[in-house]
Amino acid sequence: METTAIKTRGNAAKEAERAVVISEALQDAIVERRLPPGMKLVEAEIGSLFDVSRTIVRTALQELSFLGLVRIERNRGAFVAKPSPEEARQIFDARRLVEPGITMDAIKQASNDDLAHLRKHLQHENEAMSQRGLSARRMEIRASGDFHLLLASIAGNLIVQRFMSELIARSCLVIALYGQSGASSCGHDDHVEIVDAIAARDAARAVALTQHHIDHLEADLNYRSSDDIELRQALSL
Amino acid sequence: METTAIKTRGNAAKEAERAVVISEALQDAIVERRLPPGMKLVEAEIGSLFDVSRTIVRTALQELSFLGLVRIERNRGAFVAKPSPEEARQIFDARRLVEPGITMDAIKQASNDDLAHLRKHLQHENEAMSQRGLSARRMEIRASGDFHLLLASIAGNLIVQRFMSELIARSCLVIALYGQSGASSCGHDDHVEIVDAIAARDAARAVALTQHHIDHLEADLNYRSSDDIELRQALSL
DNA sequence: ACAGGCAAAATTGTATGCAATCTCTATTCA
DNA sequence: TGAATAGAGATTGCATACAATTTTGCCTGT
Question: pLDDT for A178-197, tens place per residue?
Answer without folding.
Answer: 888 755 556 678 999 999 99
